[in-house]
Amino acid sequence: MPHEITTDVLVAGAGPCGLMLANELGRRGVRCLLVDPKPGTAFNPQANATQARTMEHFRRLGFAQEIRFLGLPADHPTDIAYFTRFAGHELARLALPTAREAVSRIRTLGGSWSAAELPHRISQKFVEAVLLRHARALPSCDVRFEWRLEDFEEVDDGIRATVRPAGGDGDAVAVRARYLVGADGARSPIRRKLGIEWTGMTGVQRDFMGGRMFAVYLRAPTLREQMPHPPAWMHVTVNHERRAFMAAVDGVSEYAFHAAVHPHENAEDWTEADARRVFAQAFGRDIPIEVLSVGTWVAGHSLVAQRLRQGRVFIGGDAAHLFTPTGGLGYNTAVEDAVNLGWKLAHVVRGQAGEALLDSYEPERLPAAQRNTGYARRFADSVGLFAALPELEEPGPGGDAARAAASAHLDAHARLEFNIPGVTFGTRYDGSPAIVPDGSSPPPDEPNAYTPSACPGGRAPHAWLDDGRSLYDSFHFEWTLLVLGTDAPDTAAFERAAAQRGMDLQVVRHAVPQLRELYEAPLALIRPDQIVAWRGHVASQADAVLARAGGFGARGC
Ligand SMILES: Cc1cc2nc3c(=O)[nH]c(=O)nc-3n(C[C@H](O)[C@H](O)[C@H](O)COP(=O)(O)OP(=O)(O)OC[C@H]3O[C@@H](n4cnc5c(N)ncnc54)[C@H](O)[C@@H]3O)c2cc1C
């Protein structure tokens, strides 16, 4: 074991953020040491939903299909269903495509769902395993579980840090790195050491999704046959006694069950017997379960760090923002942080971008975190402040009326929280120093509707090509200059300016008029993260455009 390791980027934390970052860096041949004190990827299911934009990033990296067919069986429904109890009245249901249907359905959709991928309902534990396998296959990535970042300091030309085997009794190893990334979770020792405080709201109390939650990872082999309703992916109970939700994990017998803990209860002391008791309340009667793990967590956060960077140290994922899980945005926002930071760090390390490119991470991702935590809070209010009256479970006209009112609310709520193309595709980086505005206005930011727009600063509008490929599959892995239509201007100025700066730019031509109309310009510069950096009608400003987008200095645009 060497007593000093030299690397380009030291990453603390091998959750989704750190693992995705390792993939972005490793795919570009940048050396990365990733340490985490855990023995391996998550055992507990944790996040349940991979948003469509995250799936598009997995597609860009080449493993979306692999992830699409993990977790639930390909033909398992992914409906979201609301019940008084799992064996009680069904109140509302949002039907969604199975994994197999999602692959073909997306090719037929347009408008808000104009995308390369649909969302996928899968436990985070399965995603992490794929991210780890791909990171480990990259020669420049050194992933070490059971190693902890112990300390760090910034020195003139980099970071000096100490990592140590997690047990604490092994020898410490010194690390020299150019940059450090804290993907070290909600309690982030890195954020704390930097003295970065949280901003936002916490401690919000709601009947559901506001306060302590009791999590049970369980096996219930007879649940499907004992439940008098069609199978679903997400099951939510709405009754006066206790609110809960449960995600199907393997589509056979494993479930991630989470119940609201009342303010007077102390779930820290709850045992397996309590898990059975609380699960039986939600189901409506006792059924056989095997408890795989129990734990507690707190819902009701919408917190964002004051800053995402100090010098050569960056933070991302839960270290930088803490969500209430309504809408399923915490892990997805963590992945987008990693995507944003990954290509920028890699290009700077490889000398293909100016150091100033890194100044765009915080102004791009901090507003995104504020936006997404805000949406999650709105979803939590919509479902968690809905009063579950005792009448919901009563027979007769009074009960029928209460259930009809609940159904109307929950039907609308399900669409608000789970049909969110606007949230997933609509993140924008307006005002970023790395985006070249063109004077156009971005489309409105709405959770449930997305308007494709090539207005610089947003996700590149998607289309399916005549040969059946996704437009994104035609993009270069690094910079793409899209040349659209048949009368597009000469692009030599871009090619020359990119070559002078060492930027890896590829010109990609599509003659079909629909793409020219969609982008409202014949030229569009697409970043490695598929964000439109610039669009225009002439290439004469190429040098200034690439200077700004690549962090080489603004040069007057
Ligand atoms: C019940 C529940 C349901 C959820 N559902 C969803 C959902 O549907 N969709 C969604 O998007 N999100 C969801 N989330 C949130 C999601 O799980 C997190 O947002 C996600 O795990 C964040 O990823 P991360 O990589 O930033 O942090 P983490 O996954 O927390 O990883 C941080 C890692 O840092 C490591 N670490 C800590 N200290 C050190 C150190 N000193 N050195 C090295 N490593 C260190 C930790 O061991 C840990 O592995 C849910 C969360 C909960 C609790």
Structure description:
By secondary structure, the protein is an alpha/beta fold. It is 30% helix and 23% strand. The protein has 16 helices and 26 strands. The strands form six sheets. A seven-stranded mixed sheet has the order 6-5-15-16-17-14-18. A six-stranded mixed sheet has the order 8-3-2-12-21-20. The relative contact order is 0.13. The model has no long low-confidence stretch (mean pLDDT 96). Flavin-adenine dinucleotide binds at residues 12-18, 35-38, 46-49, 124, 148-149, 183-185, 189, 215, 258, 297, 317-318, 325, 328-332, 334. The site of flavin-adenine dinucleotide has 34 residues, from α1, β3, β9 and α9.
Q: Keyphrases for this structure?
A:
single chain; 557 residues; alpha/beta; 16 helices; binds flavin-adenine dinucleotide
Hey, roughly how much beta strand do the residues contain?
15-25%
Number of strands: 26
Q: Walk across the major sheet and give the strand order.
A: 6-5-15-16-17-14-18
Q: Alpha-carbon distance between the termini?
A: 50 Å
Mean residue pLDDT: 96
State Rg.
24 Å
Chart the SSEs and their pairings:
Blueprint: E1 4-6, E2 9-12, H1 16-26, E3 32-36, E4 49-50, H2 52-61, H3 64-68, E5 80-83, E6 90-94, H4 99-105, E7 120-121, H5 124-136, E8 141-145, E9 147-155, E10 158-165, E11 173-177, E12 179-182, H6 189-194, E13 198-201, E14 211-219, H7 223-226, E15 234-237, E16 244-248, E17 254-260, H8 272-283, E18 290-299, E19 302-305, E20 309-310, E21 313-315, E22 321-322, H9 330-349, H10 361-384, H11 396-418, H12 421-425, H13 471-474, E23 479-484, H14 492-501, E24 505-510, H15 513-519, E25 523-526, E26 532-536, H16 542-549
Parallel strand pairs: 1-11, 2-3, 2-12, 3-8, 5-15, 12-21, 23-24
Antiparallel strand pairs: 4-7, 5-6, 9-10, 10-11, 13-19, 14-17, 14-18, 15-16, 16-17, 19-22, 20-21, 23-25, 25-26
Residues 12-18, 35-38, 46-49, 124, 148-149, 183-185, 189, 215, 258, 297, 317-318, 325, 328-332, 334 line the site of flavin-adenine dinucleotide.
